[in-house]
Amino acid sequence: MAALVWMYRPTLGMAQVRDILMDSVVRSEALQGKVLAGGRINARKALEAASAVEPPHPPLHAPRAVAFKDVEPKIGIVGGVVNITAADDESDVDYYKVYWVSQAGFQLDAIGKVKATGARLLEVKVAGVAMPQFAAGLVAVAGNATGEMPAQIGGIAPSIAVVDFGAPEMGPKAAAWKGDIDLRSGIVAGALSITRAADERSITQYNIYWSNAHGSRGPLLGSIPAVGFMEPKCTGPACSLINATSSAGRHQYDRLDYQDGEEATILASGPGSIKVTRFDTEEYYDTLSVGNNELSGQPSVPLELDLPAGPVTLYWFSDDSVTATGWTFELVQTDTTADFWLPASAPLGRGLEVVPEFRGTELPEGLFVEVVDYNSSMPPSPGFAPAAVRFEDLDTAAGVIAGAAVILPSQVAAANGSVTYYQLDFADADGAVVSLGGRADANGSCPVVIPIATMPPPAGASKLIARAGNAFGLGAGQACADLLDADAIPPPNTSNVSRPNTSGRDERRLQAQAKSGDSSIAKAARPRHTSEPWLQQPHMGEKKEVIWPSGSAPFLSASAAPQSRILGAISVPGLDAHAAVEPEVRSAFEGALAAGLPHVAEGRVEVGRIS
């Protein structure tokens, strides 16, 4: 009915149309308290009332300008003063109003209002307001008692883009100087490695300065861009029930014997991968969503999924009946660190300082790393540490190891000859040496092999570490490898043993399995859109299967339809397409549609195709 009134009087405002419809209601005792109007809307009365209503006359004179600068340091929250330059002619202006607008220029929420007083400059104060989703700027419009001018970009109303002011909420977790690889005195060169902040949403880049520490900062050397990295973070009522462990960019999650009604969301970032090693849930109803994929039932494991760069969401849900043994997976993030290369130059401070920045605003203090100038009369620089060490136990007996460790030299060490030998030692999980190993001479860029005779692993040893040395001693840099006993390495997990806990409701699980067919990946979720919803196009990847076609040719081709027919498509959420094929269902649908269309008699609506 509202559409009918608007077609008749398109200049009416929404409030006017609402009032017209409510005033046209024919009251009925039978409908009192059952519908909002308390009766039936009378179309004739509504159209007669619409013809007599004066349409709104919004101002023709817009404000001359609008200005705003965010001064709120919290990211995503804006604060400050919106300055409005009044219209030159305020004869039709009662007030000015400020709206958020999207990047595409669509009106969003109102932010404030101020009366037109005749003053040239007016202010709207904004105190700690969250920016709406998709908001990109502000528009100031003029209004009066009858209406407002449109709040949109490109019209006569002035607009301004809003830049969210903010300061980083955290800094890098760690920074390390990998060592000087230029052995000239007074010159340093090498790589600075940073471990990204746990959440980079408040960081746009990390700035690198020469520094003497304690706030004495020198010139800017360069920067490392942030990539939106985020360590996994769990939210939801079931998070406390999930066993989570983390180490060096690897995060393992385990939920054993889950219960009804669980829900948890894990937010993280890619690139990376997820390896599912155990999975057993109620088919179809209890799911673990990984990006656009949903896992359910008992898929074959191990199952690996690649994570693209950018935000990643994992969502766990169990319904109110039927449980199983749960799941285990490991999430590995591969972009946890970044390197900054310092070319050969004279040091302008005792070290380097890493300072996080958000759109031009830095934290007052950064993370300081000392830079040592190495020369040829010192032990090897950490920059000459071995590139890697590898070891495979060739003795399958339990509690015994044997084989050979292969040390791969770094290319820069091989080029300048500052390393004369390599030392191999046994170390504990923290890298502390617990037993000395062997030594072998360096051989340029060729791998160095150090045999390990048959022996039990030294007490407390879990790693092998390799270091570079010369006549002045061992260098501080090292490469390490896990020390694994071949007999203790578990076989690959190729099965998925389930211990169902169905509480006597196996029938539902069997029905779900028959319905889904494939028990690996239950279904693909529709891609999440980040663009403005009013700009989204239909999902092109969706294919509709024709369940039932009419035998009548005019319904299968729009070009073949006679001029007296109108073809259209209607989506009915929740309606099973296969059930709609039944003649009784189609007939009921056709009758309901005919009853809702003016000037369409019963029997003049026909379903042509169901998909």
TrEMBL record:
Renumbered residue ranges of the record's region Disordered: 488-540
Catalysis performed (reactions): Hydrolysis of proteins with broad specificity for peptide bonds, and a preference for a large uncharged residue in P1. Hydrolyzes peptide amides
InterPro entries: Peptidase_S8/S53_dom_sf (IPR036852)
GO biological process assignments: proteolysis
EC number of the protein: 3.4.21.62
GO MF term list: serine-type endopeptidase activity
Biased composition (Polar residues): 494-503
Name assigned to this protein: subtilisin
